[in-house]
Write a sequence for this structure.
């Protein structure tokens, strides 16, 4: 299927690896030009090299090592390119813990990364999208928005705040101007972050990495972890011409792990 987005420009955050890279990869293979952003320069350059090898239809790949969660980082992005047709917001989740031990600075840091930064990126790009009659914004959030996890209070709070904001904005006048805004909620995908969580749990429990991973895997009806590649393909479809009637939605990719009806 031709997604009808070749030649568009996309900003993909946290794209040096994992889910962000999966999204960038799927987009360049559709002929979309991408600016990928991440903090780690070495991993980012390696990602850019691989994306250039994957790119179809003459798609361009630009890379910027910057912290997108800061005003300085965003200023660096706008200095390279101001207008984007597609924006994929993505930032690592805040650490788990007990809310009794989180001070105001801890909360503000979580809100900056997982709520306020996506809002700033939307604010900087959405009007240009509306003026051109096409825009796709996809926020990578978390399955915890749908099924909160007690030790992930920082993530639950910040990402749910973003979800509420998007619910309103996506249904404003921009919906009639060709701009869609949706949230993509990943469950357990086999990324470095998931592997790190397994290592932490193994150390705490005294079990092996394989044992910890197997327990998690068996709790998923699909009996496997998701891959960044399939996550990226789904994200690319959300950015397509065919997805023009999809907006204001929270799409859960978790292999059936969420047990609810709605």
């Amino acid at each position: 299927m031709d997604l009808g987005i070749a030649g568009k420009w996309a900003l993909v955050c946290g794209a040096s690896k994992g889910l962000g890279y999966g999204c960038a990869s799927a987009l360049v293979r559709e002929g979309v030009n991408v600016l990928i952003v991440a903090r780690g320069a070495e991993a980012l350059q390696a990602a850019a090299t691989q994306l250039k090898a994957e790119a179809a239809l003459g798609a361009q790949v630009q890379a910027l090592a910057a912290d997108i969660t800061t005003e300085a980082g965003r200023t660096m992005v706008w200095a390279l390119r101001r207008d984007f047709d597609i924006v994929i917001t993505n930032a690592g989740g805040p650490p788990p813990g007990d809310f009794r031990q989180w001070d105001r600075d801890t909360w503000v840091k979580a809100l900056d990364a997982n709520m306020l930064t996506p809002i700033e990126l939307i604010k900087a790009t959405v009007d240009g999208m509306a003026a051109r009659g096409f825009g796709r914004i996809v926020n990578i959030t978390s399955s915890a928005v749908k099924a909160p996890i007690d030790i992930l209070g920082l993530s639950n709070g910040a990402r749910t705040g973003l979800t509420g904001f998007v619910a309103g904005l996506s249904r404003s006048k921009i919906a009639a101007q060709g701009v869609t805004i949706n949230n993509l909620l990943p469950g357990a995908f086999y990324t470095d972050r998931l592997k790190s969580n397994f290592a932490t749990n193994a150390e705490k429990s005294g079990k092996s990495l394989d044992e910890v991973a197997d327990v998690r895997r068996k709790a998923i009806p699909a009996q496997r972890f998701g891959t960044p590649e399939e996550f990226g393909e789904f994200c690319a479809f959300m950015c397509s011409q065919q997805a023009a009637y999809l907006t204001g939605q929270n799409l859960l990719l978790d292999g059936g792990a969420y047990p609810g009806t709605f």
Remarks:
- The radius of gyration is 18 Å.
- The beta strands are 9-13, 33-38, 61-65, 86-89, 135-140, 179-186, 250-253.
